[in-house]
Amino acid sequence: MAMTLDIARDNPNAPSVTASRPDAAQPANDQAPAAVIAPVMSEDKPPLIGLSREELADAMASIGIPEKQRRMRASQLWHWLYVRGVSDFSLMTNIAKDLRTKLAEAFSIARPEIVSELISVDGTRKWLFRFPARGAGRPVEVETVYIPEEGRGTLCVSSQVGCTLTCTFCHTGTQRMVRNLTSEEILAQVLMARDRLGDFPDTNTPQGAIVPSEGRMVTNIVMMGMGEPLYNFENVKKALLIASDGDGLSLSKRRITLSTSGVVPEIARTGDEIGCMLAISLHAVRDDLRDVLVPINKKWAIKELLDACRAYPGLSNAKRITFEYVMLKGVNDSNQDALDLVRLLKGIPAKINLIPFNPWPGSEYECSDWDRIEEFADIVNRAGYASPIRTPRGRDIFAACGQLKSASERMRKKDRDAGTAA
Ligand code: SF4
């Protein structure tokens, strides 16, 4: 059961952001109604989800589909997987029954197991998904967060289990790195969210769910969950190209944002090969401080990072880079920091997101006072940057920025602290 906390009382500036469909908002609970009951992934069959069209055609070849039919079969499967959202071959009614049986014997299109689904008082949802072992590994768990707002629903997707980086304000950074997620596992988070929200044809939105009042429920993807996406470039690229395919999930690349802590050598490739929006976890304006908050800075310092941003393919006023800046009391929140931030970003088409720090157990930082955040925002706004203060969302279920960590990891930590770990 999620710890409950009054978001509005905690943050008096929190706007009311959501419409509910079809009934009133429901309190936080961990027993959300199931919109779809899908077969659960197992490790014994290769997945079709996450394959490119060419790889799907190759998979058809492997089960003896004649060459002249392969592209057509791949297109049929693509439609069923990404437009209709089915997770069971038996539902693919325009494919002959014997072929459906053959496909089901050879491949998997199942979903991950849902370990938990938490719903915040503000409608934010956090899922803990379990994926089967790959090779010699163990099953792994990752968190995915859905943030509904008026007119949009943003899904925060994980790219790795744990993280090799150790950003000191981030809870995920305290979790050891287990492995990269595959393209299937990255896409499965999107498919599962759409299942649970009733965002595929012929599925229902759970009673009382807080979602955008019209249109799609998942309108935006941000690669800001667990992990550094640019340390898993190929799988992230593959998943995002499938998510933005116009004949499938069809999410505009303008609505897909990849956030990096600053893996400079991969930034140009992100623009050239994926073409999505870019966000940078900046958080400090001096190298000595950023070396501590975002230690990858020791490898690629602020100047190098910002030079890569200036050269980001497609950068324009219509396609700005978002700079994330977490507000840490007495650490990076002075007026001088705000002025230096403005100076540093001069000439880069940019947005600045100010993120009130979301504490987690054992964190060494405090959130800046609200007046301080507003004064900082005023300086940045006066310099011409739209710099919204990101309203804390889902804090009662530890779904806010920098708070993600798998439940099993939390349990292991609890056990270690209690001296009962294996
Ligand atoms: S902020 Fe991102 S890159 Fe840094 S530790 Fe957390 S998950 Fe890893």
UniProtKB/TrEMBL annotation:
Name the InterPro entries for this protein: Aldolase_TIM, Methyltransferase_A, RlmN_N, RNA_MTrfase_RlmN, rRNA_lsu_MTrfase_RlmN/Cfr, rSAM, rSAM_sf
Bound cofactor: record note = Binds 1 [4Fe-4S] cluster. The cluster is coordinated with 3 cysteines and an exchangeable S-adenosyl-L-methionine.
Q: Which residues form the Radical SAM core domain?
A: 149-390
Enzyme class comes to transferase
Task: Give the GO terms filed under biological process for this record.
Answer: rRNA base methylation; tRNA methylation
UniProt cross-references to CDD domains, sorted A to Z: Radical_SAM (cd01335)
Which reaction equations make up its catalytic activity?
adenosine(37) in tRNA + 2 reduced [2Fe-2S]-[ferredoxin] + 2 S-adenosyl-L-methionine = 2-methyladenosine(37) in tRNA + 5'-deoxyadenosine + L-methionine + 2 oxidized [2Fe-2S]-[ferredoxin] + S-adenosyl-L-homocysteine; adenosine(2503) in 23S rRNA + 2 reduced [2Fe-2S]-[ferredoxin] + 2 S-adenosyl-L-methionine = 2-methyladenosine(2503) in 23S rRNA + 5'-deoxyadenosine + L-methionine + 2 oxidized [2Fe-2S]-[ferredoxin] + S-adenosyl-L-homocysteine
Q: Where is the composition biased (Low complexity)?
A: 22-31
The EC number on file is: 2.1.1.192
Q: Which residues bind S-adenosyl-L-methionine?
A: G227, E228, S259, S281, L282, H283, N358
Q: Which GO terms describe its molecular function?
A: 4 iron, 4 sulfur cluster binding; metal ion binding; rRNA (adenine(2503)-C2-)-methyltransferase activity; rRNA binding; tRNA (adenine(37)-C2)-methyltransferase activity; tRNA binding
Q: One Pfam annotation, family name?
A: Radical_SAM
Q: Is-annotated flag, keyword Mitochondrion? A: no
What more is known?
Reaction proceeds by a ping-pong mechanism involving intermediate methylation of a conserved cysteine residue.
Q: What is this protein called?
A: Dual-specificity RNA methyltransferase RlmN
